[in-house]
Specification:
single chain; 230 residues; alpha+beta; Ribosomal Protein L31e, Chain: W; four-stranded mixed beta sheet; 5 helices; 4 strands; 67% helix; 11% strand; extended
Length: 230
């Protein structure tokens, strides 16, 4: 009887341990699922942000600056571009400084002076961190030529820098050899200068002695006090 009771107790303990293991496994499964869901959501958000980053807009400007003063039309057009981008790129803080206009876009708007900005502009905008960057989508001929010229200059400068970096190790070996020779020459020059200075001092000392012996002694005279004129 005692053995049967022991066997029953062992079976009961085994069933309890198995039930606990099953409960722990069930608790872990939803956590893994939630983690996978969270990762999927983050990936989707990243994909959406990448898709939303670049957008093209045609912004009408004539209606905004038509009723403004003539000498404030172009600044008004730039302000409308910034407000338009804040609204359509969903930056609701209203901070115009968060919109950064490209230099070519700025030049295109200011091309016809402060009084006569363009009636509309085609813009390519994208989000860069906490900023919206606006660029021209279609370049006129003069600005396209200017941009290509500046790009060519930058490429040339980069290639020249790379060539200089490659030449630097060769120059260092040559400079080391030159520096050793230059040091020797400098030491020789210094020694020659020191010897010449000593000789000059000797000659000047000799001349001073001869002049002192041959020159007559001058009598010392006391200065006279002159009476003040009335």
């Amino acid at each position: 009887m005692a053995e049967e009771k022991k066997e029953e107790i062992k079976k009961h303990e085994k069933t309890e341990t198995e039930e606990k293991k099953e409960m722990m496994a069930e608790e872990k499964k939803p956590e893994a699922k939630t983690e996978s869901k969270a990762e999927k959501k983050e990936e989707k958000k990243e994909e959406k942000t990448e898709k939303k980053q670049e957008k093209e807009f045609i912004i009408p400007l004539r209606k905004t600056f038509r009723n403004t003063v003539i000498y404030k039309r172009t600044p008004k057009a730039i302000r409308t571009i910034k407000e338009f981008l804040l609204r359509h790129m969903k930056f609701y803080d209203g901070n115009l400084k968060s919109v950064k206009i490209d230099k070519y876009l700025n030049e295109f708007i200011w091309a016809r002076s402060i009084r006569n900005p363009p009636a509309k502009v085609k813009i390519k905008a994208f989000v860069d961190g906490d900023f919206i960057r606006a660029e021209l989508a279609e370049f006129p001929e003069n600005l396209r030529f200017k941009k290509e010229r500046l790009e060519k200059r930058e490429k040339k400068a980069e290639t020249e820098k790379e060539k200089e970096k490659k030449k630097e190790p060769e120059k260092t070996e040559e400079t080391k050899e030159k520096t050793e020779e230059e040091k020797k020459e400098e030491k020789e020059k210094k020694s020659a200068v020191v010897e010449a200075g000593k000789q000059m001092e000797k000659t000047t000392a000799k001349q001073a002695k001869h002049q002192a012996k041959g020159a007559p002694k001058q009598q010392k005279t006391q200065p006279r006090r002159m009476a003040l004129q009335k």
